[in-house]
Amino acid sequence: MSEGEGAHLRTLEAGKPDASHTAILYLEDLNVSFDGFKAINNLSLYIDKGELRCIIGPNGAGKTTMMDIITGKTRPNSGKAFFGQTIDLLRMSEPEIANAGIGRKFQKPTVFESHSVAENLELAMHGNKKVWHSLWAKLSGEQQDLIDATLQTIGLTDQYHQQAGALSHGQKQWLEIGMLLVQKPYLLLVDEPVAGMTHQEMDRTAELLTSLAGKHSVVVVEHDMDFVRSIARKVTVLHQGSVLAEGSMDEVQNDQRVVEVYLGE
Ligand SMILES: Nc1ncnc2c1ncn2[C@@H]1O[C@H](COP(=O)(O)OP(=O)(O)OP(=O)(O)O)[C@@H](O)[C@H]1O
């Protein structure tokens, strides 16, 4: 084993990300080129433990590519990406990163339509593997408590036995967030959570995401500015693969550079 591999194993064995210096995610000087086109350009970004951060930016700003780097789907050409002080994400595979406690929710819900709401959580808890084995295995009291608590958090307690395919679009999105929560992530990456939702569903999603902050660190990428305003604490504006502005919603909305970027879209 090379020295590098040893270091990688140690970080995995360390388990919990070391956020003793407040940040849980460190992205530093990241660069990604696709056929010579710089999708990510010297990007540096820090997320604090328990923080709820909104990431906005016009189409093509690099938001998805940034999420892809954090989850190991895209490898940067240069730069650093650390989870806590010690866990080097750039040395890990996608499953290793998920196991380390980074959960990602994509825009489109992907629940198991023919299974009940509770079974979906059960399957997610077992890592979506061995479907039938998972569903026949008896849940421990602790596992059952986690399912019950998660259903309460996502507002689907009354839908316990309901087939997931029969849920509304918004309910499917919440169920999928629940499927991440049962895996007890430290960091949740949520991509365009309110696309296609009714106003009522958007309000409920705002409550849900804000209730998760503190217990988890949450990064939300979203185009809907009214929604972002309703949940925003700190907002990061990406443009051409870099951070253009960062601050409160009011600060970034009144930033002339941000105004120009959005007007020019
Ligand atoms: N695999 C790829 N090959 C080539 N170019 C890519 C690839 N992935 C992304 N890009 C380009 O990189 C840039 C950044 O894309 P990215 O999807 O990260 O932006 P985004 O901010 O998520 O945009 P949107 O809000 O439209 O989803 C875009 O110009 C995109 O066309």
TrEMBL record:
GO terms for molecular function: ATP binding; ATP hydrolysis activity. The keyword Protein biosynthesis does not apply. Gene3D superfamilies: P-loop containing nucleotide triphosphate hydrolases. It comes from the Bacteria. GO terms for cellular component: plasma membrane. Residues 25-265 form the ABC transporter domain. The keyword ATP-binding applies. Keywords: ATP-binding, Nucleotide-binding, Transport. This is Urea ABC transporter, ATP-binding protein UrtD.
